[in-house]
Design a protein that fits this description.
Layout lengths: L1 H14 L8 E3 L1 H30 L8 H26 E3 L15 E6 L5 E7 L10 E3 L3 H6 L7 E6 L2 E10 L1
Parallel strand pairs: 1-2, 4-5
Antiparallel strand pairs: 3-4, 3-7, 6-7
Length: 175
């Protein structure tokens, strides 16, 4: 049973964080953050949109009111963002680091790399595309570096093609 579960987890998290059923894998923290964002958008955001439209409507003839047209277009885009976020959350499943195999690099791994060209080290956390934040050193498993790291081990050398050129790293720690 554990073997089958491990195989399922490994197969899900090796190429993408979206499986064939459209499931999106998120950490609990990110799920809570997105739920709060959605709640705020539905309550305060919609109220602000309605206020903008009412203010623009008060400016007179709607057939020649560019401000009203812009506010309605903004409302449409805002509702689209809400719809996309609702869809994402409806397909989201929470993942925990403890559920993943520890024999190699997978999603939620913290990976320390030695830059073989420039020297120095950098530590990244591999996350789903929805959680990626380069400023926090959270990189997507679907990014070029993320893809190159999947299933690798301490001591492995990787070469990654990125828009800026070729990167060469040695994996020095995984946790």
């Amino acid at each position: 049973m554990f073997f089958i579960f491990s195989f399922l987890i490994v197969s899900i998290f090796t190429e993408s964080t979206v499986d064939s059923k459209g499931t999106v894998y998120l950490t609990r923290e990110r799920m809570v953050e997105l739920e709060k964002q959605l709640q705020q958008m539905k309550s305060k955001g919609r109220a602000e949109m309605a206020s903008k439209i009412a203010e623009a409507r008060a400016h007179g003839d709607l057939s020649e009111n560019a401000e009203y047209d812009a506010a309605k277009e903004e409302q449409g885009l805002f509702e689209l963002r809400i719809s996309k976020l609702e869809d994402l959350l409806s397909r989201a499943r929470i993942i925990k680091k403890g559920d993943l195999p520890k024999d190699a690099i997978y999603i939620l791994s913290d990976v320390t790399l030695e830059d073989l060209k420039m020297g120095g080290t950098v530590t990244y956390k591999l996350v789903s595309p929805e959680e990626a934040d380069f400023e926090q050193n959270k990189i997507s498993v679907t990014s070029p570096i993320g893809k190159a790291l999947m299933k690798r081990h301490i001591g492995d050398l990787i070469t990654v093609q990125v828009p800026a050129g070729t990167l060469e790293y040695k994996i020095i720690d995984v946790s």
